[in-house]
Each structure stands twice: as structure tokens, then as C-alpha cells.
Specification:
This protein has one domain. By secondary structure, the protein is an alpha/beta fold. Helices cover 38% and strands 11% of the residues. The strands form 2 sheets. Strands 2-1-8-5-6 form a 5-stranded parallel beta sheet. It is globular and about 55 Å long. Helix 6 packs across helix 10. A hairpin with a 4-residue loop joins strand 3 and strand 4.
Length: 288
């Protein structure tokens, strides 16, 4: 969305926001630096980096309030379970809302007037249209430009490839329990990052440090991998049916991109020309 805005396909955004959990892969931070320097800055779009702290450090700090990660749990009776997921709200949504309020001139706890709001762009493609939702606060109005354009994941990949950004990495915490085996294998290719997540996995076996310090210990054991065994022993080399399907889809997507480039086709049939409805007016346009 940032590139589409910078290149005039979408209206120029006033700001782009990156919510940093403090524990992203190094490749993500390097990619963000590149986007800021090569795409955002020349277009005059400030990239705002916001944060609520370092999720890894907070999980291991007995003196710090911690919003739980969705850890896989093996209960004392042998039954599987899972802890609540609070991390997205704390480390992603909360800092974005705080920044938006400041941009509007109404930082918490000031009340934002009902006629003051931002239009927030959310990068959900047609493949995941079911994830497109309205914001839960009145001063933020969500819009989904990729869905408006009719763009799928393969369309996004085609466009990124045309800009020399085919290697765009996935943004997520290094130790996110939602990683599939393919992502864990990718992390393992970087010895430093693999050592980091293996050490963290071992450190949270009894749950987060704050809960343990306050006397509400986990009645079981917690793990990062869905197999509920230590990450260093987890069967991450096993390829699931879902991964096979995803791998085939990626091959198909990349094959289509190569064929288009060879045939001189980059942007397809300009799907943005088929947009319906008038653009929403707001005080700011944001990409998040």
C-alpha cells in the first residue's frame, strides 16, 4: 500500500505507521529501513514507528505487566490447551491508536470529537477478505485498498516484484506461536535468531515471569510449537498438507509473475480503474 500510494496508484497517504513489538526478524527491520529511504521519503510520506515495549523482554521480566502470547499448553492431566492472545492488542493496536490520537490532536484521555477521525488503510487482500473489519473506535475508519482494487496475494507479489521487492519478508514476532513449520525452518536458517527463539521457548516453559512472581503459576507447561515439545526438538521438518498447498500456491504465484515480466506485463489490467464508490474524506490517510 505504501508503494501504491508513493507511486500515485492510491492517493498520497499522510503517514505510514509501523507498530514494532521489538522482536521482529532482522530482515524485517532492514526491509523497513529500505522502504523508508527508497519509497516513503522520496514521496514525502513520513514513516512513524510506534511501540509499547519489547514483547520478549516483557515476557521474561517479573516486574513488568505482560499481555499474554497464545502459547501452547500441556496441562498437568495431559490435555492440550492454549493461553489467551492479548499481545496483538497490546503491542500492535494500542500503540497505533495512541499515535493516531496524537496526530488528531486529542491524546488520551482527551475525548475525540465525533466529527474528527482518520481513514486507516489496512493491507488485507482478497484472499483474506473475511478479515476485513471496521475499527472499534469512532475516530478511526478502516478502509481496505487492496480489496477495493480486487488484488489477491499474487497481484501484490507481482507488483512488489516489478519494484525489485520480491524478497519482502513477513512481519511477525520471531517467537510467534502461530508460525507454521515452514516459518520455523526459515528462522532456523539464521543461527542467531534460532538460538534466540529456542532460549525463549525454554524460558517460558512455566509461563510468563510476571504471573509466576504474583503467585498465579501456570498449571502445566507452555511451548511455542503446536506439538507441545521443546522447540529444539519440535518436528518442524514435517510438511503438513496445508504447507504443501501453500507451497504450490507460492510456486504458481511466482510462475505467473515471471511470465508476466517476460511478456512485458507488470501491473495487469489496472484493476484500480474499476473502483466503485466515492473516496471517503478524512483528516488523514494512514497505512498501518
Amino acid at each position: 500500500m505504501l508503494a501504491l500510494s508513493a507511486n500515485g496508484v492510491l492517493p498520497k497517504a499522510d503517514y505510514a505507521i509501523f507498530a514494532d513489538t521489538g522482536w521482529e526478524p532482522r530482515a524485517v527491520y532492514q526491509h523497513l529501513d529500505r522502504l523508508e529511504k527508497e519509497i516513503a521519503a522520496p514521496a514525502g510520506i513520513p514513516v512513524l514507528r510506534v511501540s509499547s515495549g519489547n514483547i520478549r523482554r516483557d515476557a521474561l521480566d517479573p516486574n513488568h505487566r505482560f499481555a499474554s502470547m497464545p502459547l501452547y499448553v500441556l496441562n498437568q492431566d495431559g490435555r492440550p490447551g492454549m493461553t489467551r492472545r492479548q499481545c496483538t492488542g497490546e503491542y500492535k493496536i494500542k500503540p497505533i491508536k495512541r499515535q493516531v490520537r496524537e496526530l488528531l490532536g486529542y491524546p488520551h484521555p482527551q475525548r475525540v470529537p465525533k466529527d474528527v477521525f482518520v481513514e486507516q488503510w489496512v493491507g488485507i487482500s482478497t484472499d483474506e477478505f473475511h478479515r476485513a473489519k471496521d475499527a472499534d473506535v469512532r475516530y478511526m475508519r478502516n478502509r481496505h485498498p487492496l480489496i477495493d482494487l480486487g488484488w489477491s496475494r499474487s497481484d501484490c507479489l507481482r507488483y512488489l516484484t516489478s519494484l525489485g521487492l520480491a524478497d519482502t519478508p513477513k512481519s511477525s514476532c520471531l517467537g510467534c506461536p502461530y508460525h507454521g513449520n515452514a516459518q520455523w525452518r526459515h528462522i532456523r536458517e539464521n543461527p542467531e535468531e534460532w538460538r534466540d527463539v529456542v532460549e525463549f521457548d525454554a524460558a517460558i516453559r512455566a509461563g510468563n515471569a510476571r504471573a509466576n512472581a504474583s503467585g498465579t503459576r501456570l498449571l502445566g507447561q507452555a511451548f511455542l510449537h503446536r506439538s507441545r515439545v521443546p522447540l529444539s526438538e519440535a518436528p518442524i521438518d514435517h510438511v503438513t498438507a496445508a504447507e504443501w498447498a501453500a507451497r504450490q500456491q507460492e510456486i504458481d504465484d511466482r510462475t505467473a509473475v515471471v511470465e508476466d515480466l517476460e511478456n512485458g506485463v507488470v501491473d495487469g489490467c489496472s484493476p484500480w480503474a474499476c473502483r466503485s464508490g466515492d473516496p471517503v474524506r478524512s483528516d488523514f490517510d494512514l497505512t498501518a
